[in-house]
Automatic annotation (TrEMBL):
Belongs to the cytochrome P450 family. The gene is cypC. This is Cytochrome P450. Pfam families: p450 (PF00067). Keywords: Heme, Iron, Metal-binding, Oxidoreductase. It comes from the Bacteria. Signal peptide: none annotated.
Amino acid sequence: MKHIPRDKSLDSTLDVLREGFPFILNRSRSYQSDIFQIRLLGMKTICLHGQDGAALFCDNEQFMRTGAIPRRIQTTLMGLHGIQTLDDGKHRRRKELFMSVMTPDSLHKLMEFMAADWRYSIKQWTMQEQVVLFPEVQELLCRAACAWTGVPLAEEEVAPRTRDFRRMVDAFGGVGPRHWRGKRARSRAESWIKGIIRQIRNKELQVPEASVAYRVAWHRDVDGKLLSLQMAAIELINIIRPITAIGWYITFAALALHEYPETKARLQAGDEEYLGWFVHEVRRFYPFAPFLGNIVREDFEWKGYKFPKGRLVLLDVYGTNRDKGQWHQPGQFRPERFRAWDGSAFNFIPQGGGDYLTGHRCAGEWLTIETLKLAVTYLTKGMTYDVPPQNLGFPLDRMPTLPRSGFIIENVRPTG
Ligand code: HEM
């Protein structure tokens, strides 16, 4: 049996917080190994980096989610016992619900809502001296997500509800006040959405049968029962919250357009294939999800290394997207690299790898891609704007991260 390299530190929890996104990548480079072992909150943990590690990690026969996601992340980002924590038949049944709303027709409707919201927002921005893009785009996304799912949202509610979704996401790498803000935001959002589910079930709120809210409200689990009010709320939030989270990527897309103006020129020329590559490159290059966790089901061996039952295993999402063996000059922003991409489900994993239905790969990946394409189209062809001097740096030791200024634009004018 081969020996898994062990990190020198007695416990790496503080190093993870201190180093942030590149924590696993840094060590896999210094140990020259795609596998090494650390202790995380006292628990022995195996870290995997790279395509082969990702392929192993996505094998549900060897791994399960039960016990892999810390309670502090469930009580802020995801909700307790939501789809992310389920395994096997229970997971499959729940995942079918999520994937059933990701059809081309359904996504097309969402894009219509979003396009209307882009036009509305651009008009508003023309009346403002300066616009901080990140929070504005999140509000736009929240309006569209609620309209699409069938959740009523009065205009005065847009800002506070969006803030709550933002705080849930912002809590995932935070301790202290950020964690508590995320928890309070989640409990406000859950009571709001529980009320909506109750109204749909009581027929006090009429929503179309094809709508996401209707499907979640009337979804039956493997046992044939409706989800509890709480669980239905958690899963509906698991659709609306991540749509607002695409605001992080849209802000990074705006940053890329600013820092790599040659990409903007090509997008303005209407190159559709390039638009797809650009959106992929934004998701590869800019950091969002750092790592994922799984638990070993039963003892097994891989490449001569022992994986003991119950061991926590982390997959390096950030670093696998920047793996030098897979990506030529990974530190450069070059959308054209996707021309030659092999389409592997394991070397480009910003939203997880493997299979959508049988695995945990992000249910909203296609939605994210379409939303980003639309956003980039509006940023390049639907408006003009200036980018004044500001702090555009994004710290890698903060998870999630964002350009410090939130990306300020001014002199916004609609075009076309
Ligand atoms: C799962 C990232 C947007 C719904 C995941 C996972 C990641 C991820 C890394 C875990 C994959 C795994 O465990 O293997 C992202 C990023 C997004 C995004 C970076 C863009 C900002 C969305 C959207 C939706 C969504 C728009 C829904 C509308 C979900 C759900 C899961 C998930 C339901 C759990 C899937 C499961 O456990 O089977 N996402 N996501 N995400 N995502 Fe996303």
